[in-house]
């Protein structure tokens, strides 16, 4: 977890900011990263960095082994998950200490010309400058733990049926559908295919709603909802994420009929 003074950095933003600053601030990346990757539910902040820096980019299912394959094939240098896992190809595993050192390197680089007594560039400054350049991806995850497995599975099946009928241009409240699917991944290294990795609703403004059943809970089923909204307007970047995302959160709950299927009216 990366925290500045009174400032929380989401894992999705953290990996994007590390990638954006890696070549100039971290000696290991003097020649630039080979490629960037994120897990599918992680926000699209990293995508925007890859596009601007013209780097290969991969969106993989949740699970570190998918990053490992790309690293072994020398296609990937920096990667991360929304659940705080961040890493690079110096090791075939997530590395929290490395992530903190990467941030310290960025902070040191950004302050290298400061004279004693001058105001230093802070974590918040680095993040806000990044948002000003790339836009902000507001992001939140709702977890509903230990749900009745039958109800949770019925909800996911209901959503799969819904996306199978979805067509671009469908209206969901104020949002227009770009596409909807159940995420499938074809590994570019070994050609293996992984299906049913999460139901996605992706809208034309860059907003996304994703539903997954997670296998990491200790009992019953854990339903995870990922909500993301892209905001290019810098005057709105300081909004509280829960306020900025409320229309999408309300939409996610109504589209999924989560309360009907699981009986839950709030996340754990």
Automatic annotation (TrEMBL):
One of its GO terms (biological process) is carbohydrate metabolic process. GO terms for cellular component: cytosol. GO terms for molecular function: metal ion binding; phosphoglucomutase activity. Keywords: Carbohydrate metabolism, Isomerase, Magnesium, Metal-binding. Pfam families: PGM1_C_vert_fung (PF24947), PGM_PMM_III (PF02880). The keyword Metal-binding applies. It comes from the Eukaryota. InterPro entries: A-D-PHexomutase_a/b/a-I/II/III, A-D-PHexomutase_a/b/a-III, A-D-PHexomutase_C_sf, PGM. The keyword Kinase does not apply. Its cofactor is Mg(2+). Residues 12-115 form the Alpha-D-phosphohexomutase alpha/beta/alpha domain. This is Glucose phosphomutase.
């Amino acid at each position: 977890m990366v925290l500045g003074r009174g400032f929380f950095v989401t894992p999705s933003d953290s990996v994007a900011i590390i990638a954006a600053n890696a070549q100039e601030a971290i000696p290991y990346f003097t020649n630039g990263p080979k490629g960037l990757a994120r897990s599918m539910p992680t926000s699209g902040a990293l995508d925007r960095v890859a596009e601007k820096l013209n780097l290969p980019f991969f969106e993989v299912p949740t699970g570190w082994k998918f990053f490992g394959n790309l690293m072994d094939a020398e296609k990937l240098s920096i990667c991360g998950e929304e659940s705080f896992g961040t890493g690079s190809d110096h090791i075939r595993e997530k590395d929290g200490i490395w992530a903190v050192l990467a941030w310290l390197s960025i902070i040191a680089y950004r302050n290298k010309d400061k004279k004693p007594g001058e105001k230093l560039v802070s974590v918040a400054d680095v993040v806000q400058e990044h948002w000003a350049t790339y836009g902000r991806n507001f992001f939140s995850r709702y977890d509903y733990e230990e749900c009745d497995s039958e109800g949770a599975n019925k909800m996911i099946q209901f959503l799969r049926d819904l996306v199978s009928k979805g067509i671009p241009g469908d209206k969901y409240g104020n949002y227009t559908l770009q596409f909807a699917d159940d995420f499938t991944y074809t590994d570019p290294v070994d050609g293996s295919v992984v299906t049913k990795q999460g139901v996605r609703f992706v809208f034309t403004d860059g907003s996304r709603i994703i539903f997954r059943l997670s296998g990491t809970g200790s009992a019953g089923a854990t339903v995870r909802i990922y909500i993301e909204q892209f905001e290019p307007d810098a005057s709105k970047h300081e909004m509280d994420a829960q306020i900025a995302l409320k229309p999408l959160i309300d939409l996610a709950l109504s589209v999924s009929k989560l309360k009907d299927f699981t009986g839950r009216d709030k996340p754990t």
